[in-house]
Amino acid sequence: TFDETKKQELSRKMIQFIHDDAAFIPGLINPFVRMAYWRYVMLPKVPGSKSGPSILAYGWVDEKAKKELEEYQKQDKSFGASVTVDTTYKMKQ
């Protein structure tokens, strides 16, 4: 229907139906974060909090490391990739 009043009425009925049915729609929870950032973005020893909004919210820029990276880039050099896995909040099994 294109009638605004009728749409609102139908919407309310659908919401009430879902509520009355006590419908549950399961979702997927990823208990991890994948991220990448430049090597001059520094993080605390424990990066973030168990329920924090974003790990990078706690980061800062190291100007010396940034200049070093820029020099490497000018020379077309690379530091190589590095992977860090923080297990501070990993569930005990």
* Topology order in helix (H) and strand (E) letters: HEEH
Task: Write out the strand line-up for the largest beta sheet, numbering strands in chain order.
Answer: 1-2
What's the end-to-end separation, in Å?
A: 54 Å
As residue ranges, the low-confidence spans are none
Q: Determine the number of helices (DSSP H or I, runs of at least 4 residues).
A: 2
What is the strand tally?
A: 2
Backbone shape: elongated
How much of the sequence lies in strands comes to under 5%
Sheet/helix structural class = mainly alpha
Rg over alpha carbons: 24 Å
Question: In summary, what is this structure?
Answer:
This protein has 93 residues and is mostly helical.
Describe the structure.
Helices cover 32% and strands 4% of the residues. With 93 residues, the protein is mainly α. It has a two-stranded antiparallel sheet. The protein is elongated, with a radius of gyration of 24 Å. 0% of the residues are buried.
